[in-house]
Specification:
heterodimer, A: alpha/beta, Rossmann fold, Arc Repressor Mutant, subunit A, four-stranded antiparallel sheet, 8 helices, 14 strands, elongated, B: five-stranded antiparallel sheet, 9 helices, 12 strands, rod-shaped
Amino acid sequence: MKLLVIEDELELNKALVSYLTTEGYIIDAAFDFTQAFNKVIDNSYDCILVDITLPKGNGLDLIKQLTEDHSKAGVIIISARNSDDDKIRGLDLGADDYISKPFNFAELNSRIRAVLRRRNFEGENVIQINELTIKPNERSVFVNNQEVVLTKKEYDLLLFLVVNKNRVVSKSSIAEHLSQDEHEDLFNHDTIYVHLRNLRKKLSEKDCVDYVQTIYGIGYKFNTSL
Amino acid sequence: MKLIFKTTLIYLLISFVVLFISGIVAYFSIQSELGEDEIETVKNEQRSIGKLIDKNQIVGRTVLSADGYSRVEPVNSFAKQHYRVIDTAIYDKLEQENVEFRFYVSYVKTQNQVYKITLAKNHHLRDEFFESLMFIVGLIFMLILVVFLITNWIISKILWKPFFKTLNELRTYSIHEPNTVKFPPTKVYEFNALNKALKELTKTIEHNYQEQKEFTENASHEMQTPLAIIKGNLDLLIQSENLNEQDMIYIEGIEKGINKLSKLNKTLLLLSKIENDQFNKKRTISGSKVINQVVKQFEDEIKSKNINLQIEIDPDFEIQMDPTLAEILFSNLIQNAVRHNVQNGTIRIQQTDNSITVFNAGNELEFAHNELFERFKKGNDSIESTGLGLAIVKSILHSYDFSIEYKFENHLHSFVINFQ
């Protein structure tokens, strides 16, 4: 998987590249519009992360260009301007998703994965980890081919952990992911704990290994090496 | 008091004083003129009568006037006062009123007799003259009054017209609609100066307001990227294998701070967007639909606090609002009701006519009721909250001219929103 990160803020760009590299992607970075424009023309990417406000140009124009070129790349807008207008314009121009700063990397990763799933693996919509099978299209989960019936929140939680497998996912990023609403902050850590407990119970009833590891003070890790 | 009324009053007061003084002056000058005249006449008469007595053409008691008051009569001796003026009122049967008279008494001596000459002057006409003088002065005053009222009315209608136009413009002026205020040019220097000053003032205010708005929004935007950098690097840091438990606790603390900060920043941004009227899609929204949708977001919390939730809303109840704002509005209100609720508490959402009331159980406020909607106002139990939720609620309602009222009765907090 080849990704392009277009972000003018050096430190954020560096952090993004470093995080996404450990996810196993091949990363290219651009810091301004011209650089990004040239890279987009010369290379073919699976997913492009683009900041709207860029030196020497606007990220939205880049998205327009990609759409005109019938690019196959998924596009995720990362913007400091949490504006509905920008969001709607970006999505209209052909972007796949919009995430506003500041975001959790785990959340960004799960969005990238969702975009890649939609764009590239159209036939192959199954995530398999040992005895655990997740079919994101159907939003269904199986353990040893036996279906596990989960609530929406339990499913979202499981998928989020699986997508960010073998990484520590902070409680706050889980809360943010599950609430899916920028204006509310009700998902306190107790309710996450309740959902996680129910999820673990349902999975272990079907003899699934408890892959979810509690990381003291911070959050959880879906550890496939257990 | 209207300015026109005040100026009229001042003018009337001045004319009253002027007329009063002129009246008095006229009265006294006429009086003294008439008095001197009378004395002159009396002296002449007295001289003539004296001559007649000398020539013995008047002998003994003689009546000189038809009313019988002016007369000559022989007396034994001079009175102590040789010459006297007596004012007296005599009842007149014909006119049926007291009539003022002035008696001039003097004495003439012949060789063997002293005569007392009494000349009576009727002052009745003079009184009537002064009465009519007063009447005329009064009439002039009334005339001035009427003329003032009419001219002032005309002045206010015509001369002050540009002023009232300007006033009307200012009344309908809203800072949220810049460049809409129009001051029509006039030929009056003062009003033109006023309009010019107002134009400059509104321009400056609009400019400053715009800058202020942009500053809040830009400041919040500018903070997003550094926050993203901190958050991102923290995400990288927690992946490290070498962290011990104490490190984790430090990181957790940093994370909490960052999350609070980004939440605050997002909320401030939202608040400035509401105040900048960036939500302007007015739609018809079903009240019960949006509330049920919002309540769903709080399911877990409601369940964990074992809150008894009652929603009584007419399915046909509709609100005219921007859909995003409506959701934010109820989300903040219900979040408030959930967060500040007690274990096994209640929440009741009730609709009547044009209002929706959210009741919730909870402890009494730790601060004054009128501070409830202020920014960053929160009780001690709400470390998690930004203290901006109810400020947002108020700001949204304000942008639609809807009202909200808070009450605390029988251990129940209630927020009444009036959508009218």
